[in-house]
Design brief:
7 strands, Thrombin, subunit H, 3 helices, seven-stranded antiparallel β-sheet, mainly beta
Length: 119
């Protein structure tokens, strides 16, 4: 299956190759992230493993199914602003024993200025 078909309708303009060339950064300690599944009303706090213009990675105990859609709220506490970013699971990679990095592609890419405010 082609990368654009794997990503579904929400990310039809992105390609896996373009996402992989994005530089990933650790999130700033002043960056707080919450995530929810679209059919849920409550956001849960998550710690970002890394962030790029195209998406985020989080560290979890179990892999998530590809194409799972979620909504992120990523806030810079120091500057007091929040980004609401729909995203979709694009990979789950074993990190260490009992830990996985789940990667999410944003529906839209962050600008360089937006990314800089979160790292």
């Amino acid at each position: 299956m082609s990368p654009s078909k794997q990503l579904g309708k929400r990310h039809s303009g992105d390609s896996a190759a373009n996402r992989r060339v994005s530089v990933r950064f650790p999130a700033s300690p002043m960056t707080v992230s919450h995530m929810r599944l679209p059919h849920k009303t409550v956001f849960k706090r998550v710690r970002l493993f890394n962030i790029s213009q195209g998406g985020v990675g989080i560290l979890v105990r179990k892999p998530w199914p590809l194409n799972t859609e979620v909504d992120f709220q990523i806030k810079n506490e120091l500057l007091n602003f929040t980004f609401d970013l729909p995203a979709q699971v694009v990979h789950a990679t074993r990190y260490t024993r009992g830990r996985w990095i789940v990667g999410f592609a944003f529906e839209r890419q962050l600008s360089l200025a937006e990314l800089a405010s979160l790292v």
